[in-house]
Amino acid sequence: MAKATPKSDKKSTGRKSAVPVPPEIDASVLDTLYQTITARRGTDPALSHSARLLSRGTRKIAQKFGEEAVECLIEAVAGNKRELIGESADVLYHLLVMWVDAGVQPEDVWSELRRREAMSGVAEKASRPKENV
Ligand SMILES: N=c1c2ncn([C@@H]3O[C@H](COP(=O)(O)OP(=O)(O)OP(=O)(O)O)[C@@H](O)[C@H]3O)c2ncn1[C@@H]1O[C@H](COP(=O)(O)O)[C@@H](O)[C@H]1O
After folding, report:
1. ipTM, two decimals
2. How far is the CA of 127 from the centre of ligand 1 (A)?
3. pLDDT digits over 38-48, tens only?
4. Is the CB of 75 under 6 A from ligand 1?
């Protein structure tokens, strides 16, 4: 994933820039969003979509995730890149709501991805226990 170069004034005087430095545009946005969704749990559903969704329970949360995933794959198959970006954001948001509901921490998933870095997808599949037929 391409990482935007953060604006920094470190090399110059060390003084703070008058220009506000935007948050980095990278995957850390997922950690921030996860924390926001977690903080919304139990708050007023009229003010927070996350609070409303979390109050509706696991089945509804899973259903919404599935719907967003389908909308995402439709845009991918249609070759609509711009729409795919928007639908991808919806999928990631609803995935994070599902993690919050299930008590899954982002670090748990990041660790699993790190563990897999050492192994190719082909080798990983070959290492799975064979199903009984
Ligand atoms: N990233 C998102 C985000 N992506 C999608 N959605 C919402 O997901 C909803 C999907 O629409 P749907 O009609 O499919 O869902 P629905 O209203 O539950 O519909 P029904 O199932 O009831 O028919 C829309 O209301 C979107 O606004 C999101 N809602 C919130 N966030 C972010 O989550 C954070 C917390 O938001 P709040 O919880 O609203 O404060 C903020 O940073 C938001 O930007």
Report:
1. 0.92
2. 39
3. 999 999 999 99
4. no
pLDDT above 60 (res 4): no
Which atom in ligand 1 lies closest to the alpha carbon of residue 60? 21
Q: Domain residues of the chain, as ranges? A: 28-117
Q: Is the dihedral of CA 37, 115, 68, 25 positive or negative?
A: positive
pLDDT computed for residue 24 by the predictor: 80
Domain 28-117, architecture per CATH: Orthogonal Bundle (1.10)
CA–centroid distance, 55 to ligand 1, in Å, is 13
Geometric angle at alpha carbon 56, from 50 and 62, rounded to 5°: 80
